[in-house]
Amino acid sequence: MRSPYAHARIISIDVSRAAALEGVEAVLTHKDLDVAAGPLPLLIPHPALTHPHTQYALAKEVVRYVGEAVAMIVACDRYVAEDALALIDVEYEPLPSSAPATRRRQPMPR
């Protein structure tokens, strides 16, 4: 499951209906990741990066872009997984995005 918001706080995630679906082996959110719950490793370090920051495998408390992964399903096949995704309830509190879609792109200086 991916975020429909560019910037939002995750208020709650209810996976109980998805987990109860026949054929679903696991439903994972950030709190289920244990050792993998930290930020992902920086795969290509660069000397110009003074404060490198990587994202989490699954959003922790805040989503920062449309499409950020929030939950993951492990199921017997793709169709069951898609049905289970529809049963996950996520409550978001939308936050202001850093670049509003209404702002017009400025032409590059020549």
How would you describe this structure in keywords?
110 residues; alpha+beta; three-stranded antiparallel β-sheet; two-stranded antiparallel ribbon; 12% helix
Overall description:
This protein has 110 residues and is an alpha+beta fold. It has helices spanning 16-20, 78-85; strands spanning 8-14, 24-28, 62-63, 72-75, 89-94. The chain has a three-stranded antiparallel sheet, with no helix packed on it. The chain has a two-stranded antiparallel sheet with strand order 2-4. The termini are far apart. The mean pLDDT is 86.
Give me the strand/helix succession: EHEEEHE
Mean pLDDT: 86
How far apart the termini lie comes to 42 Å
Low-confidence stretches: none
Q: Rg from C-alpha positions?
A: 17 Å
Fraction in helix: 10-25%
Oligomer: single chain
What is the total tally of β strands? 5
Shape verdict = globular
